[in-house]
Amino acid sequence: MTRPARSSRAALATAMAGTVVVAAYAALAAVQMLVLNPLAAVPGRTLSQIHAEMAAAGESPGTAGVLVVLGVGVALAVAGVVVVRRGAAATATVAIGYLVLLALGAPAYFLASFGPGVSLADTYFISGGDHAPWAKPLYAVSLVALVAIAFLTVGRLARRTAPTT
Description:
elongated, mainly alpha
């Protein structure tokens, strides 16, 4: 087996694993915003009751907006698999691309959660922030992704500029 074939397989495996992780991140973010946070913000009520009370107050849980914002990341991850499958790509480059998507998960989460949080706040006269703790692991994953990007990038630059003997 030639080296490019092994490299292409590793890049494709990285892209596929990255897509699974990005999709899992998006799924947890959606569940946090649309289910766990409302239930934590309004204890003692079911999700159906919360949605009914929000509708009665002229507010929306923001499901479509959440799914659209988070869906962009998943769509980019899937597109990455297609791109890697069609051409040669360095595994480290592919990994950095998926780490960028995970790092951008934090701002995407904040953007997507703004509408549902404001709707909860307006309906129940509470803070619009996170009431359930599951945003913290998402932010942690994004931070770890940023650190990993830095390490991979510095490592690649160091290898390029290292003197050959």
